[in-house]
Amino acid sequence: MRVRLDTELCQGHGRCYTLAPELFDSDDLGHCVLLVEEVPAGHEDEAGNGVENCPEHALSLDE
Fold it and tell me: Which end of the chain has fewer CB atoms at under 10 Å, N or C?
């Protein structure tokens, strides 16, 4: 499973890195930064939770 980020859609709400700090971080402006592209085994739920809670739909998962 891979996570994708559309940096142009991200508004820096911070939900992704608050919910899944092992997968997402923030830059100096508070916008999402991917820590991984390939979701590690056992972290699928956290990745899905971060993606589902992005109000701008800047994140997506590819199975």
Answer: C
Domain residue limits at 17: 2-62
Q: What does pTM read for this prediction? A: 0.92
CA proximity to 54, closest of 4, 2, 1: 4
pLDDT tens, position by position, for the chain (63 residues)? 999 999 999 999 999 999 999 999 999 999 999 999 999 999 999 999 999 999 999 999 998
* CATH number of the domain encompassing residue 38: 3.30.70.20
